[in-house]
Amino acid sequence: MTRLTFYGGVNEIGGNKILLEDDGTRIFLDFGMSFGKREEFFEEYLMPRTSNALGDFIEMGLVPNLKGIYRTDLVRLLGREPKPPVINAVFLSHAHADHVNYISFLHEDVPLYCGHTALLILQSLNESKTRTIESEILDFMKRPRTRRRGEPPVVRKVKTFRTGDKIKIGSLFVEPVHVDHSVPGAYGFIVHTRKGAVAYTGDLRLHGRRSQMTRDFIEKAQKSRPIALICEGTRFREKHRKEEKEGEEEVRKECLKEVKKTRGLVIADFNFKDVDRVKTFYTIARETKRKMVVHLLDVFLLKYLSQDPALDLPQPDDPNILIFLPKRQSGTYREDDYQRAERQFYHYPNTVTAKNLDQEKVLLCFSYWKIKELIDIQPLSGSLFIHSLSEPFNEEMAMAYQRLKNWIDHYRLKFFQSHCSGHASEKELKEIIKKINPRKLFFIHIQPPQKKYLVPLDQEEAEKFRTMVRKEFESADRQVIIPEYGKTYEL
Ligand SMILES: [Zn+2]
Questions:
Q1: Cα(383) to centroid of ligand 1, in Å?
Q2: What is the distance between the alpha carbons of residues 213 and 203, in angstroms, rounded to a whole number?
Q3: How far is the CA of 32 from the centre of ligand 1 (A)?
Q4: Strands (E), 325-382
Q5: pLDDT per residue over 419-447, tens digit each?
Q6: Distance from the CA of 403 to the center of ligand 1, in angstroms?
Q7: Cα-to-centroid distance, 100 and ligand 1 (Å)
């Protein structure tokens, strides 16, 4: 018996948790956090209680109510008897929170398989971020937390793979193949089951700098003559991202033009895990004789990802980089104000603070959350703010965006928008599906249009949307399925 069950990525962008069963073998493809579902019930000051272990997460449908998959300490806290895991492995497509974060809850004996670069990202986050129950991926502290100091965390078993590997898990052979996405170390999978091959795209695109990697995946998936393809559909019928550029080179060119015209400070707001974007702004900084300023919290990503020679990233002590030390409690930049892990960079000769920033000679990489540092920096007139992310596509994002705009107005910054997406466009999706040509197409990571933010989907409208998607991709020998949450599909 070979079957698929979807516990996330269903009628939503992200939160992928796909269970693949083949005779007695069971694996999960991704086990991510579903932002949308979480926001339906929780927000900043209304968080799932960790005192209730997994209880709040299960009750509100943030993780599936399945036996034999969760950590023994959390199962015990629920008053259940822990058992050995019924899952053989979890395969991670890439290190974005909506694909990786809830691995945190999985049984400690379930091995995690991921790409080498994805592991570097996880290591960097592990070192730089404060531990929370929703992101303890590589290791976790047993709950309830004891007062004993120095108790070591439980370390998860991690195995890394690369393209060309064929990993045997019970009756399955899992073949990871690199793809291009807005984070390095992204993979699709071709899983060879007893019934035939099942391909899974993860998140991918064909317009990035390394589109050949996606083409390699398409070619291998096509050759495997898959009985099923699980495909992301993020940008299907999107209207909100029409302003996006169709390639990184376009982003580089138009941002360079703006930076060249600027006399004051340049601030670039982008996701630092997007290595292509990091390199775009690094190049722009060099071409305009500015130094790229990296916030202390992002330096960890540079430290780890520069270890991967294929990415060709500068190291934290690169002569063209400055490390920004934010002001902490004492307000005097004392070493002991910083977290232990942060202090490794404190004595670097290339650190800089708001006080000694030479505004006309730097390009500041600051995301939304770091904008408050502008109070100490006091940008010169004529300064530029580049928003290199998606424009808002729901009300919560729109609120944050407005708040950001208010900061920009307050400091009279010039605003410039430039971004290209990590996901395949509708045209690219059609090409990918046509080439791979699966017998069954499972569309996930796709969201029917929502009338109002946080208001549950109108079922009638959602069904109309699904019918439209099916019509678009169905053919005489292809069935299109937009899976339902928790429903099992026989292959
Ligand atoms: Zn992603």
A1: 32
A2: 12
A3: 10
A4: 351-352, 362-365
A5: 999 999 999 999 999 999 999 999 998 88
A6: 25
A7: 10
